């Protein structure tokens, strides 16, 4: 336990604790906003589409299907 010599030291530590609490609160809010953004339907669909397009088998199948559909409309 820390021993204080005067009230000025106590006030200084209280101010530091108050600032640290504000920083921690902002970190939590930032984390919550990032989580909300990453769980939005638009983001989930975008991430899923990106993942699917990186798979070579799915990419080849998609290309073949799109080519087939394109030929049907010519």
Overview of this protein structure:
This protein is mainly α. The chain has one domain (7-72). Helix content is 85%, strand content 0%. 0% of the residues are buried.
Compute the number of helices. Answer: 3
Topology as H/E string? Answer: HHH
Mean pLDDT: 86
Share of residues in strands: under 5%
Give the biggest beta sheet.
none
Low-confidence stretches: none
The total of beta strands comes to 0
Radius of gyration: 28 Å
* Terminal Cα span: 82 Å
Class from secondary-structure proportions: mainly alpha
Shape: rod-shaped
Helix percent reads over 70%
In the residues, how many domains can be counted? 1
List keywords for this structure.
74 residues; mainly alpha; 3 helices
Please give the structural blueprint.
Layout: H1 7-38, H2 41-54, H3 56-72
Summarize the structure.
By secondary structure, the protein is mostly helical.
